[in-house]
Amino acid sequence: MITREYRFPLNGSLLEPGQPLLTVSDVGLRFGGVQALDGIALTVRQGEIHAVIGPNGAGKSSLLNCVSGLYRPQRGTIRLSRADGEVDLVGRRPHQIARLGLARSFQNIELFKHLTVLENLMLGRHHRMSHALLPALVWFGPARRQEIEHRAMVEEVIDLLELQVVRHQPVGALSYGYAKRVELGRALCMQPAVLLLDEPMAGMNAEEKESLARYVLDVNELAGVSVVLIEHDMDVVMDISHTVTVLDFGRLIADGPPAQVRSDPAVISAYLGEADR
């Protein structure tokens, strides 16, 4: 079997597997009297799927919002390692962080329903388009060549996620499972070094979850993209993750390989509910 070689990610691809890629240190986030995150520290390594789990309200989405620039923590650092050195993400705007190599999906589907699958995926390339207004309007020279290059990258994502049969369909006409796959694809079109997935399997049935989990594995193994995953389905988390971080009431209570975390008494008490689950 011949495995296709994909051209992403742009950033982080020169890091060796296992090297620290995204480092969160002593991050604290407060909303008035509510401490959403309290001294969170974790390291996402090149080439891994890193799951963040915990009960509702544990601070999981708040952590992703800090990493992606939607929230600014009151203390701590968040650093992204690149081939050209480390970059501090705290204080940067979301579009700047996206350019540095992070892409984000959300719990609710955030696609343009009246646009086709192909058009939604092309929007994932928007932050890398740099042609001037006039060439873009008349579509010649550099603008045309750039459009062709971006389309080639989108075609790779369509191939990886097996979206060929729905490429020209409006997103609003797709099944829920396909729409979730398109959202994953649009984030992947940004060529991230780190892909942040916030409950990508929420609302799916067992068959849809199994399918999407396989595509997340393909994104990680074939495309070389490191993944930070928030997910409530423990079977999925334990099956596909290399490292699991557990939060409870904004604090980190466990961090390590899935088997170690699964048997941790603090995790069982706070989240899993029973040791042999």
TrEMBL record:
PROSITE patterns: ABC_TRANSPORTER_2. CDD domains: ABC_Mj1267_LivG_branched. InterPro entries: AAA+_ATPase, ABC_AA/LPS_Transport, ABC_transporter-like_ATP-bd, BCA_ABC_TP_C, P-loop_NTPase. One of its GO terms (cellular component) is plasma membrane. The keyword Cell cycle does not apply. It comes from the Bacteria. PANTHER family: ABC TRANSPORTER ATP-BINDING PROTEIN (PTHR45772:SF1), CONSERVED COMPONENT OF ABC TRANSPORTER FOR NATURAL AMINO ACIDS-RELATED (PTHR45772). This is ABC transporter ATP-binding protein. It comes from Virgisporangium aurantiacum. The lineage of its organism: Bacteria, Bacillati, Actinomycetota, Actinomycetes, Micromonosporales.
